[in-house]
Amino acid sequence: MRRVLVVDDDRLVADTLTLIFERNGFVARAAYSADEALQCSRAFVPHLLLCDVTMPARDGLSLVEDITRELPTCRILVLTGFYSNLKSVREQASKLSRPLGVLTKPCQPSELLREAAALLATV
């Protein structure tokens, strides 16, 4: 079974996204900060990281850099609720050494699952 780590500082969002993945055949866990996610990822070893970009303390792109280094086979999908950040996020994503999906919040569960499946198919 595919493992997904969902990271969002909004607990309701993280828990809801985790449920969407669980109900669609994934093993999913939620983390509520970048630091918590990094610790969790070391034990859980997700196939996919779904991460909010804008979080307090450390942002999602900082976490993406750590995950890229520590878990080179983990696929990454980031979410942003700030359309004004979208161009910047896509530019930063294009500089990474691996494919990175970018979605805006809110997004339909079907779109989220389709993007996740596409990224996981590249493994």
Structure description:
Helix 2 (about 35-45) runs parallel beside helix 3 (about 60-70). The protein is about 45% helix and about 20% strand. The two termini are about 15 Å apart. The protein has helices at about 10-20, 35-45, 60-70, 85-95, 110-120; strands at about 5, 25-30, 50, 75-80, 100-105. The protein has one domain (about 5-120): 3-Layer(aba) Sandwich (Rossmann fold). The longest helix has 12 residues, at about 10-20. It is of the alpha/beta class. Strands 2-1-3-4-5 form a 5-stranded parallel β-sheet, with helices on both faces. The protein is globular, with a radius of gyration of 13 Å. The protein is built from 5 helices and 5 strands.
SSE topology:
Elements lengths: L2 E5 L3 H12 L4 E5 L2 H11 L3 E5 L7 H11 L4 E6 L5 H9 L5 E5 L4 H12 L3
Parallel strand pairs: 1-2, 1-3, 3-4, 4-5
